[in-house]
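#struct-pred
JK: can someone run the complex with glutamine? inputs below
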Amino acid sequence: MASIRELHTQLVKKERSAVEITQEALDRIQALEPKLHSFLTVTAQRALEQASAVDAKIAAGEEIGILAGIPIGIKDNMCTKGIRTTCASRILENFVPPYESTVTQKLANAGGVMVGKTNLDEFAMGSSTENSAYQVTANPWDISRIPGGSSGGSAAAVAAEECVVSLGSDTGGSIRQPASFCGVVGMKPTYGLVSRYGLVAYASSLDQIGPFGRSVEDTAILLNVIAGYDPQDSTSLKVEIPDYAASLTPDLKVGKKLKIGVIKETFGEGLDPEVEAAVKSAITQLETLGAEIHYISCPRFRYGVPSYYIIAPSEASANLARYDGVKYGLRSPDADNVLSMYTSTRAIGFGTEVKRRIMIGTYALSAGYYDAYYLKAQKVRTLIKEDFETAFQQVDILVCPTAPTTAFQVGEKITDPLSMYLNDLMTIPVNLAGLPGISVPCGFDSKGLPIGLQLIGKVLREDLLLQVAYSYEESTNWHLQKAKIA
Ligand code: GLN
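RT: done, structure tokens with the ligand placed:
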């Protein structure tokens, strides 16, 4: 599938119709899904209707927006009115939301065509998409491997060209890590830039919706449409949204000489040597483009994973208390009183990882343990934020690998939660500090699996991050390689 800009030109010049473009995406979905399993629900009819509406506008001589007629995948934890939204959980198997999330509403208003709802780890808890109650999504570069997670379906669908762009959510790395594993671009915006209204809550102080694309420009265009203040989300930021896509230029001129900080601590133990080599040559490339490279220390970075795995489960245990068989989705049939209805519904409705997190979170929040665990983790969170603040006094952006490895085999880590959690070592601190981060393709390992470079920016400097990512991308060919399955 072509880029957003190319498709837009074809539409405006009437070389192709939106229905034809949508049909191309739907055909690819039909051909690839038996192997890929990236969609939980395909909304073919609605997609063709949305596409026809765009065609009607073009026929009537009306102007169309840049996203009009573009096939988009939506992670199945964003509410879509009248369309099943499962969070890849049994407990929401038949949940049809009575309302639309702000982001999907914005996409629809812009003429975007939703082709379906993509697979994820149940309630976005995981790093491999294997925690889905329904199916395991394959990595488009090697179908014996996982696509990363939790937004694995959205990343795989874009890499396999089942859609042009997609939305994911990122609580501790769930956009950037699968982007890295699938060889696409994925961005986690500043906390509060994109409305969370209608995003099923996992850990509310960390969750953020963001875009996937096969190029930085496609990613920037999608971000432009979804960003902005929403009175329905109390954490939404009231800020001007710049035109991220319009200002992209291939050269790295960003006013003054760009200072890039390499986070020293991310090059330690556990980092795959091939990932290290690719990221280091990307840093050299940025230097060639004119950036000044500094080596920066973030000493508390390594406490990210332990503090995250107190804070996120604590918030999750509170957020998931609402699934009790009364208000939403599944209700256990074999219960003779209210209490057993609650407990048996949750026993059959939630998967193992979700239960593990609810138990950890409930424990950490309980009287007597709150100070020792939850409060302590919150203090560590502040220290991590301070590390970033100190670093950003010296440099404009930070870089490091997105993940310590490339995509692993299906089943490789699923029985070892700790090694699964450690995969998010380099992405989690960014969520704890509420900063924007982006992963861009920066090479392949000897097995032909994609490697991602993570760029981290100051609060609300998505514009700079995208610009640097774009300059880098334009000076390389990584993003032009096609996944095997595509
Ligand atoms: N893998 C991390 C977790 O399991 C992050 C998930 C996410 O960002 N949604 O919590």
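RT: quick notes.
The longest strand covers residues 437-444.
The first helix runs from residue 4 to 12.
JK: thanks, will look after standup
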